[in-house]
Amino acid sequence: MDIYRIAIVGAGPAGYFAAQSLFKAQSTDRTFLIDMIERLPTPWGLVRSGVAPDHQKIKTVSKVFENIAKQDNFRLFANTELGKDISLKDLSEVYDAVILATGASGGKKLGIKGEELQNSFSAAEFVSWYNAHPDFTNLKVNLETETAIIIGSGNVAIDVARMLLIDYEKLEITDIAQHALSIFKGSKIREVIICGRRAPENAAFTSVELRNLIKLENIEISVSHNQLKESNLRISKVKDLDREVENNLHAMSMVLNQSSKSFKRKLEIKFLVTPLEIKGVNHVEEVIFAINKVNDGKVEITNEFFSLKAGLVISAIGYEPIEYQGIEIKNGRIENIAGHIKDNIYVVGWAKRGSVGVIGTNKSDATDVVDLLIKALKVPKKVTGIEGVLQSNHKIINQIGWEKINASEVISGELSGKPRIKESDWNRLINLGTT
Ligand code: NAP
After folding, report:
1. What tens digit of pLDDT does each residue of 292-318 get?
2. Which residue's alpha carbon is nearest to atom 36 within ligand 1?
3. Atom 33 of ligand 1 has which residue's CA nearest to it?
């Protein structure tokens, strides 16, 4: 029997699905001992800190993760950071193979003047803040403003818009961070404007997300009638049109038929606008945009400008991996060929493909990379695994430690009718998970 030690770095969906693929590939001749290494004190990655709190159903995938974690040959090493507590070089030496599932946690930057003003955030920051990510507990979010602007027209933009517009009572029964809940409760936001740089047919959100938003009470949604008409004209000439484009335009046309009587809050989806500058004294006050046009199927910036007053700007324009020693990032992903980085090091998930795809996308992606990894395996190395390289006094949160945190959060949630109350303080998380 060949026994291989595999390190998976990153305890998000891509990491768990890689572990699942490895376990499925075990046979009478081959076993895998899997160590999952995670920087945060808690696992589950974007399922914990990315999926919107009002989308609890999506989070039930965590049950799959916990079943994987219960396998005999699986160990969790949370609160253990690659590049700080352990190096990629060390991992590569003490494991037969290393799989990086480190995701893409940095928000892409617009690179425009004023982006650094107070109350201008990337979705990576804002979403992590309301989801109790311990790195973002102290983010200074101010919702005492009437208008918020979201740059980008993807599903994250829709998530953020919904969070800003939804009735506060709907958030009370979720696992939203307690610190964010009180800010949302005092929110004065009445209008959110999503700004996409291309045309309606190029919207990156999916029709199902827009339809769900339309179903919400108290929110009036608007899209330019003329822009939709022009989009429909353009797509009518396209052969083999992507079905999702058609569905999206249909969902957008549904909003034109809303009666606009008693809505408390408004969402406008503006297309063909490029942000040029965020203005304000210390904090966000106004955004200057250029108007774009479609010319021969291509989007071009024009010399026409306009400005919108707003007290909050969130750029939801995608994510990129965080750099650490031993890897190179290019075009929003860790450089790799079909998931292979170099030597015995592989990559899966958003770190491999960039920030595209939903949780389920990681499953087939991980299977492909694990197939590649297995083909390259030789005789198992006589290696120690993580114990050989981690400082003996390092505070690891193992699976039992995580289960203590999990149980404590769920119990405190039950008392107040929520799925859980998340702990968002680093020290308290470490204490809960190590004592
Ligand atoms: P996304 O789908 O890639 O959308 C990014 C948006 O930002 C696009 O509209 C893009 O426009 C725009 N953009 C990019 N760079 C820009 C710039 N410099 N200036 C202005 N606009 C810019 O990314 P995402 O919304 O972060 O979502 C990431 C992935 O997670 C997606 O696959 C998404 O479907 C998934 N997700 C799914 C759900 C769900 O299923 N409920 C929820 C959240 C996220 P262009 O198209 O012109 O580049």
Report:
1. 999 988 999 999 999 999 999 999 999
2. 155
3. 155
